[in-house]
Design brief:
The protein is mainly α and 269 residues long. It has helices spanning 2-15, 17-20, 58-94, 96-110, 114-125, 129-155, 159-166, 171-207, 219-226, 235-262. It has a single domain (56-263), classed as MetI-like fold. It is built from ten helices and no strands. It is elongated. Helix 1 (2-15) crosses helix 10. The model has no long low-confidence stretch (mean pLDDT 86).
Length: 269
């Protein structure tokens, strides 16, 4: 319940960031730079989480950064899940050359470290929100393909699939009506655990300077801007890091709960 409450709070904060942010996230005030948390600005309104080197409000940046992190996490998981699921189920159902070619591509891609592959692609495509989502989709779809293929291999020889095939059902009807619904449970669990991973990878790319552009606020870029001032202004990097930790931990706890709910073998009577 606490994880649900924290995730709901992050989602609501991201959706309402334009209305509840005390300041513009990218608008700086050099006269109010490096103000500690809780101190009032020169105009009288307090900076609850302090300001950075350019006088930008840290709380406003975290609220708007939540929108970017959640958008990247959910969109990349949906894109990678759709591509990987379709290719994996087709490969597992038809087998043959399609299965061999797809699995060799998956093996080659999985041989590269995830973050290194993402960095290389980002250097080629350039910084940007859409590019980050595209890179994470390209780098993560093999995971869904392998899970979907394993489920298709298991289900294609099931009695209900054989019965449907003997009654004259085509491959498309069998895949959509019989294989895909029964393969969704492990795929949903994988997708739930992948959302916090995508949030961390987006933060890592922005931290390394190859993620979001300068005109987009993200938790990773806030971490990068605050790492050079940890001794004199610890709050610049600490609060975005805490936001990432709380969000990732909460979603992982929900993933554990979802796995226990959807897997009958893990239920305790």
């Amino acid at each position: 319940m606490l994880a649900w409450a924290l995730v709901s709070l992050v989602v609501l904060a991201a959706l309402a960031a334009d209305w509840i942010s005390p300041y513009e996230p990218l608008k700086g005030d050099i006269l109010n730079n490096l103000r500690p948390p809780g101190l009032s600005a020169r105009d009288g309104f307090p900076h609850l989480l302090g300001t950075d080197m350019l006088g930008r409000d840290v709380l406003s940046g975290i609220l708007h950064g939540a929108r970017v992190s959640l958008l990247v996490g959910v969109a990349s998981v949906i894109g990678a899940g759709l591509i990987g699921t379709v290719l994996g189920i087709l490969a597992g159902y038809f087998r043959g050359w399609l299965d061999e070619v797809l699995m060799r591509i998956v093996d080659v891609q999985l041989a590269f470290p995830f973050i290194l592959l993402a960095i290389v692609i980002m250097y080629v495509l350039g910084r940007g929100l859409f590019n980050v989502i595209a890179v994470l989709v390209i780098a993560s779809w093999p995971l869904y393909a392998r899970v979907a293929r394993a489920q298709a291999l298991r289900l294609r020889e099931s009695e209900f699939v054989l019965a449907a095939r003997s009654l004259g059902a085509g491959w498309l009807r069998i895949v959509l009506r019989h294989i895909l619904p029964n393969a969704l449970t492990p795929l949903l669990v994988v997708a739930t655990f992948a959302i916090p991973q995508m949030i961390i990878f987006e933060a890592a790319l922005s931290f390394l300077g190859v993620g979001m552009p300068l005109d987009v606020v993200s938790w990773g870029s806030m971490l990068a801007s605050g790492r050079t001032a940890l001794e004199q202004a610890w709050w610049i990097a600490s609060f975005p890091g805490i936001a990432i930790m709380i969000t990732v931990l909460s979603v992982n706890i929900l993933g554990d709960w979802l796995r226990d709910r959807l897997d009958p073998s893990l239920r305790v009577s």
